[in-house]
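Supplementary Methods, section 5.1.

A reviewer requested that the exact input to the structure prediction be made available. We therefore reproduce it here, unchanged from the version used in the analyses.
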Amino acid sequence: MARYRLARSVALFVLLTTIGRLLGFAREMVLAAVFGASEVTDAYTISFSIPGVLFAAVGTAITTVMVPMLAAHRARGDDVAFRRLAWTLFHALLLVLVILLTLALAGSGWLVRLFAPGFTGDQFELTRRLTMIMLPGIVFMGLTGWMEGVLNSSKSFTAPAAVSIPMNLVLIAVTWFLGTRYGIEAVAWGTLAGFASQVVLQWTALRKIGLPYVPVLDWGDPDLRAAARRTTPVLLATVTRQASQVVNRALASGLPAGSAASLSFAYRVYLLPLGLLAIPLVTVLYPDMAEQAAGNRMQALSATINRALRLLTFIMAPLTAGAVLLRVEITALIYERGAFDRMDTLLTATALLYYSLGMIPFAWRELLSRAMYSLGDTRTPATNGMMSMGLSIVLSLLLVRFMGHGGIALATALATWWAALSLIFRLRRRYAQLRFYPLAVGSLQAAVATAAMSIAVWALRGPLLGRLGQHAGFVPLTASTLVLVGVGAVVYLLALLALGVEERRLLTDLLGRALARPQKERRVGNG
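The structure derived from this sequence is encoded token-by-token as follows.
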């Protein structure tokens, strides 16, 4: 039963997330086609990131803390306490967000100088105007994060997984139909409308989990005070992680035009497999880890963590190699059209090369951080995040001199590796029951299988793509790339079979249960 629920939850989450991510790529493709990798796109990219960073500094912290606390009330069956705490957290978060928005609007010019010190003149003024338009998105993003935390604590994942769908549809339509006529400011207004659409979608899902609106803000609630104490370390971890991105964008703003946009475009490609495969698994497992930790079932928690880390490794390893080997082709297929020319493709592909090296540790870090939060340890991820940020900034400052924007992406990947490995060592040292030997074995198996796949793809890549040339049409380039992906997938799976990887059987079992269960339910219902 548990495996069935996990399979169905992950499958539905992946399906909805896939639709949202594909629409997100369509949004980026339309933006690239209309504006290219230009100063205007750089201005929009910086402006778009500002509300995201400000929200992440507050909303993500309290959302992360909410899930274990609310899940504990749900596990005890105390619905009254669940509703009271949920709405108390809502009103407290809303108050914080309104104060943050007021301060941000008053200091919009200062924020632009902080995020993009290399912008001057008309580009600075454009960025400031776009920022003023999109800053109210902080409130919508915060409410969306609160709803996601509440729904996930109740193991309701459908609405949170679908929130990006209406936003991306709005942005695609606005960019294509209004951006070409009214410019980038129309896209900024469309972005704000997209943020609002996410709130509307999830608000309707709250009633389905038994959470009607309750006008309560109990400052004396002990859970609220505990949430405030636990939020501070999580806040520091989130701020430091975002700070490294701020530094990266600031460095990119001083590089040749298009550098900031190419980093943004590459980062979206880099996040695609993580958002489609890694984040859904981590999101679905988080409430389970919280319940296991609350019940002091450390062996079960250790098994959950190792199983998830191994799955993430076997999924991310071949995707990392594929992104490195086919970075130019992937970038060209996604972006190279309209104002996005071959030079923009090469700039973005360079960033993608180095970002991709951080796929595995990114997935590990997300899972391990939530494992720490489940155990009530919010300080370790905070200190880990601060040290990772410092390392990323130092490496960026060093590497950007020699590698340009590629050095910024490489610094991010190296710092992510350090963060993930550091969390593993800290968990192992602090909790003797948590053992990572299965992960070490799985990593070695994944490395062998990925090496075999890479050799096969590299051997076929030259003859297959060499005949097409760099100006190949979309259809032949797509067909050739799909052939390479297919060959790589077959070789990788055969290698896993030869190595006897147990996750192959687990995935087969989960898929079988997910498909068989509806048939069983129909038979019972008909009986």
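Confidence is low (pLDDT under 50) at residues 513-527. These observations are discussed further in the main text.
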